[in-house]
Amino acid sequence: MKKLFATLLVALMVLSTAALAADYTIKLGHSDTVQNLLHVSLENFAAYVSEQSEGRVEVDLYAAESLGSNAEMSEMLMMGTLDAMMLPQGQEAVYAPKLNILGMPFLFSNYYEVYAVLDSEVGASLVEDLANYNMIQIAYWENGLRQVTNNVRPIENPSDLQGLKIRTPEDAVTLAIFNTLGASPSPLAFSELYLALQQGTFDGQENPVSNIHANNFQDVQRYLSFTNHKYECKNMVFSLTSWNRYPEDVQQLLIDAAKIYGQEHRDAIRNSADQMTAELEAAGMQVNYPDTTAFQEATASVYDDFYAANDWAEETVAQIRAIIETVE
Q1: I want to staple 155 with a disulfide (CB 3.0 to 4.6 A). Which of 26, 225, 226, 259 is the partner?
Q2: What parts of the chain have a pLDDT lower than 70?
Q3: What is the DSSP string of 22-90?
């Protein structure tokens, strides 16, 4: 009798576990730490998807490049071995080259201009080429307007960047900007950056304030210069191999949730910038706000070269600037 009862108990436990199992488990990777505002919004996104689907859809998050670098994870998307990732603009532009236009130097002066463009038909058109690589973007999320940190001197003029070894992401436009300004830029995986700065492999790097703060770069960098030299987004992208397995209602839930928490992430980045800057300054960073007029003049050739290499680029920049003019 005891043996029969034990067998029935085990069977009930198995059935109970099966009943609780999700119909769809989404594996989503990204390169930021769990302290980063992006990860916080992703946790909220995952909780919302689980709740709204009544447990049918679960999102498992893999932070800090635990599945590989951004380049490696994007290859996994293309091959269909990873469901989704937060794909940074520079790496995404490998597959959707028009996205590079968002990173042109000093194109945007504030976040509201950025949002107006990203949420327009122009913004949607920039990522259409992803389909050629078995990918689909379901929402623009945030990375931010980018600033320069270094250990040598405050960046007040373009000449202050002369010869500085600057880490950049794998992004052709960023490399072009810093080469034009006389720096010595090189790409490096983000997960390796703190140690590289600590060891002096690089004099500095460029990132939004939220990334500088979340990764404690104040411990290994002395100067923070608010150059706003370019913008970068970081977007929720799925492998079409996975996406096409989901029924319509699940796809719509994911799209809705990605937009809701993408907006939450935007708001968090924008609203926390002053507080994060104050905390970086309190921790010992010297903060300055250079006049960027000379920087803009010095990087004009980046536009010329980009237009020469891409026959669609000048018209697209004109469309973006027309949208920006409507922002009050």
Answers
A1: 225
A2: 1-20
A3: -SEEEEEE-SS-TTSHHHHHHHHHHHHHHHHTTTSEEEEEE-TTTT--HHHHHHHHHHTSS-EEEEEHH
